[in-house]
Design goal:
By secondary structure, the chain is an alpha+beta fold. It is about 30% helix and about 30% strand. The protein starts with a helix and ends with a strand.
């Protein structure tokens, strides 16, 4: 109890942060997802996930460039501000765009991304495309990013039920991505105050296409650690990916980062 009070008075978090990662190839021939995180000091952290846009070529290069650019930028400036997050995403966009080479497989490469950054007890996040971030607190889903996609626009205007997105044939038509010709629109959220009982899940569309929001919440509620959380998620993903592969339509790559705050 004395340690808890001391940490609170000194501005130190009254929780510890656990991180776990999961990456699977699904039914594809190559892995176009990339993920990583950096904790440059006890008060700061950055978690990034990216998904190379299918059909553009060199998706694995685009996603890795975006992840590397964001983490390098955060290590240099580990600030939890909207301006810093926007700068990190803009730098990642430029890194992918300038790496394009005409008349090669990567001539039009692009990638989605979701980013969570933290400094002390504050967190903000941003995303481009349809890679998602979920924020859980205790037993509730507090926030979920809104996909930058055609289907999400249809949901917003009441033309499509949200429950139909996961299995819709046009679910992968996104409106923005890092590396596109025009600077993409970044969706930013926060800051929010972090506390024990919080959980953040960053994932690519290969996850949420196979596991719905209610099931993701149940995985969170039933977990006692970040590793346990993703182990439960993997138990859902693997058989469903295999089932989809058996139909002749390969399941997408699936990746996730779990960030869990415990007292």
């Amino acid at each position: 109890m004395l340690t808890f009070l001391y940490n609170r008075l000194c501005g130190k978090p009254a929780y510890r942060i656990e991180t776990a990662t999961l990456i699977g190839i699904g039914g594809r021939d190559n892995q176009e997802d990339a993920l990583a995180y950096a904790v440059p000091n006890a008060q700061a952290g950055c978690w990034v996930i990216a998904d190379g846009v299918g059909g553009r070529g060199a998706g694995e290069i685009a996603s890795q460039l975006a992840v590397d650019s964001i983490l390098t930028g955060f290590r240099n400036t580990p600030a939890c501000t909207e301006n810093n997050l926007r700068r990190l995403l803009e730098s990642a966009h430029q890194a992918v765009f300038t790496a394009r080479r005409p008349n090669t497989a990567g001539a039009n490469m692009a990638t989605t991304a979701a980013v969570l950054i933290r400094a002390k007890n504050r967190a903000i996040w941003g995303h481009v495309g349809d890679s998602r971030l979920y924020h859980f607190r205790d037993s509730r889903l507090m926030h979920r990013t809104a996909d930058q996609s055609l289907l999400n626009m249809l949901v917003a205007c009441g033309a499509l039920p949200e429950a139909d997105i996961n299995h819709h044939p046009q679910r992968n038509l996104i409106l923005h991505a890092l590396g596109q010709d025009d600077t993409p629109a970044f969706c930013l959220h926060g800051p929010v105050s972090m506390q024990a009982g919080d959980g953040f899940l960053l994932c690519t569309d290969g996850v949420w296409e196979l596991v719905n929001d209610i099931e993701l919440l149940e995985c969170w509620q039933n977990s006692h650690s970040a590793n346990h959380w993703l182990a439960g998620l993997q138990q859902l993903l693997e058989p469903r990916a295999a089932e989809q592969n058996s139909t002749g339509k390969p399941a997408d790559n699936y990746s996730a980062i779990a960030v869990k705050l415990t007292a």
